[in-house]
Amino acid sequence: MKTNKGLKIGLVAVVAFASFAFTTIMNKEVKISESTINWKGYKVTGEHSGTINLKEGVLNFDGDKLKGGNIVIDMTSIKVTDMQGEYADKLAGHLKADDFFGSEKFPTATLKFTKLSGHDAHYHVTADLTIKGITSPVNFEMKLDANSATAKLKIDRTKYGIKYGSASFFDDLKDKAISDEFDVDVAIKF
Q1: What is the pLDDT of residues 142-160, one digit of tens each?
Q2: Contact, 157 vs 136, CB < 8 A?
Q3: Could you give the CA distance from residue 76 to residue 53 in angstroms, rounded to a whole number?
Q4: Is 3 part of any domain?
């Protein structure tokens, strides 16, 4: 009788351990360890480019299949790289000001994956992007390698209340007009 009871307890322990181990292997959350985020904005008379830092981020996998992700961007880290010195600092300051990203009041932006399709190394991602407290969906393609991923996003700033210099909202801007859309190129390691 004792042997039968001990055998049952042993089997329950093995099944519980196997279930836990299988779940842990199949569903995993991977922290993003490094990132490079480059942005490029356009105006009638040219363009400007720079960088911005990732604050934190995770990707969720079921086995090898990407199932989700959540990324937090440090909006106070905006830098301009196509100019130097005073001009770069002035533009970065303007981008952090209230008429653009309002970095003091809104120090982070978030990107939360809501829908993924694709397989292996290529995914079409729909995500909720929140900038200045306003959330709007974005779509982009994401490519995965063993421990890295790349994505290119085109973001319409006016969807987040950023209307400064937009010909969509202001007449007679002429060569002072700034494109509503800007590009973001992301490379991450995990």
Answers
A1: 999 989 999 999 999 999 9
A2: no
A3: 9
A4: no
- Return the DSSP state at 18: H
Amino acid type, 4: N
CB 36 within 8 A of CB 50: no
Structural domain span for residue 161? 28-189
The CATH number that applies at residue 43 is: 2.40.128.110
Q: How far apart are CA 22 and CA 182, in angstroms?
A: 43
Inside any domain, residue 118: yes
For residues 103 and 11, give the distance between their C-alpha atoms in angstroms, rounded to a whole number: 56
pTM of the model: 0.83
Q: Is the model more confident about 50 or about 121?
A: 50
pLDDT tens track for 30-74: 999 999 999 999 999 999 999 999 999 999 999 889 999 999 999
Distances (CA, A) of 95 to 8, 19, 138: 66, 50, 21
> What pLDDT, on the 0 to 100 scale, is given for residue 174?
87
